Recover the amino acids of this structure.
């Protein structure tokens, strides 16, 4: 299987790539700065480009059977705005090439109809919205774009603090206020679960939250 990974130079994206290579997948990594990606492998192709460059995005996706996005905002307004442009371009390319499967990282700042809201969750969202407006707006905007698309999307919403703990393949997946979610999530576990979704229909067109 060939997959294209966006956000490939990030901490989660690097885990996605390494684990995909371990599964003997062919991997195309889309990055804005190729020098940031230190991984090399005969099954890894690196495409350098900006998220708003539709032609480069298409070039990176062409020939893949699925796309994974580990893109996430960082709180820098200009950069954060680019993410929804990138997601829109990914969705355009998926449609053009008839590629159905798209797994993307999001966070619980983007609410889901299956969440049971509470004062605690409202307070957390308000803190993020006020403390880092571009981060919050980016997540809400690109998550909505994915939801509106007609591909077989799955959004995995990070419910907690990311860590660099090793892979143990033990995650909680569900909805706020309903399911048991912990306060931390290892990037290795997140990457593993994103890749697991590529061969699963369990959460197609759904956006569960995830934690260790
Ligand atoms: N850290 C936490 O505890 C936490 C908690 C909840 C949610 N999150 C979210 O989870 C995301 C993933 O976490 P992480 O630790 O893997 O983050 P990360 O290492 O900062 O990775 C973010 C990825 O997104 C890419 N990116 C961001 N803006 C971009 C732009 N304008 N154009 C192209 N690429 C862009 C980055 O590219 P570059 O490498 O080129 O910068 C990087 O590959 C975070 O971005 C954050 O939104 C984090």
């Amino acid at each position: 299987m060939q997959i294209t990974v966006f956000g490939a130079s990030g901490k989660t994206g690097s885990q996605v790539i390494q684990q995909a290579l371990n599964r003997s997948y062919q991997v195309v990594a889309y990055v804005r700065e190729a020098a940031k990606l230190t991984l090399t492998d005969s099954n890894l192709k690196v495409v350098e480009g900006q998220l708003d460059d539709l032609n480069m995005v298409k070039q990176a996706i062409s020939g893949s059977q699925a796309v994974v996005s580990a893109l996430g905002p960082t709180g820098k307004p200009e950069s954060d705005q680019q993410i929804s442009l990138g997601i829109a371009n990914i969705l355009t390319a998926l449609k053009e090439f008839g590629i159905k499967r798209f797994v993307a990282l999001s966070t619980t700042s983007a609410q889901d109809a299956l969440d049971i809201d509470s004062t605690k969750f409202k307070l957390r969202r308000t803190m993020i919205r006020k403390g880092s407006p571009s981060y919050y707006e980016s997540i809400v905007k690109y998550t909505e774009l994915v939801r509106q698309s007609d591909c077989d999307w799955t959004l995995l919403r990070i419910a907690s603090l990311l860590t660099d703990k090793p892979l143990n393949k033990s995650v909680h997946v569900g909805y706020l206020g309903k399911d048991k979610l912990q306060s931390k999530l290892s990037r290795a576990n997140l990457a593993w679960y994103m890749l697991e979704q590529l061969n699963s229909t369990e959460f197609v067109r759904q956006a569960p939250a995830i934690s260790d």
Observations:
- The first strand starts at residue 2 and ends at 6.
- The radius of gyration is 16 Å.
